[in-house]
Amino acid sequence: MNQARTVAAALVLALAGCNAPDAGKADPAAPAATATPAPAEPTQPATTPAPPAAAVQLPTEACVKTEDGFAAFFEQFVYEANVRSAYSAPQIEIRDLKDPGKLLESQTPQQAGPFKIALVDNQWSYDEPGKQAGQLDRVKIDRTLSGDRMRVDFVKAEFSPDEEVVKTLGKPEAYVFEFKQGCWQLTQQLR
Fold this sequence. Notes:
By secondary structure, the chain is of the alpha+beta class.
């Protein structure tokens, strides 16, 4: 029983990030400590997405839970495929736009299809496969921050020369981002 407590204590110290000299003081625990972290290491990246996201450089203000922080994040998310990959949940919930409580299905980001908002010449556009940047329709975007969630509603639109929406075209859609583990993450698509 005493040896089991020693092994458990050594494991707790090792997982807490203590330095090697402190964790290795108890020689009887050393074999158990070297055998135990092997299963623990694969689970650590699954619970902390920081390594893939850390490789992506974002402006400092992008991971702040404010409207301005989200604006900085969203521009990078739209513009950079590697940011979309790093900051999308493993499963995107596809929900009904009129009844967001209704889950239609859950898909990987690849199954959910390409991200539909693009930034072309500093204008938000509806990204459609097969169309060149100059052929893309512009979109009207509305963002709503509610607690840990930012909802981005968008719809194709025609604009006047002074940038006012003249009319909307087609069906509206939305993306929902949640502030998780220190930054924003795409978690839902509303259709």
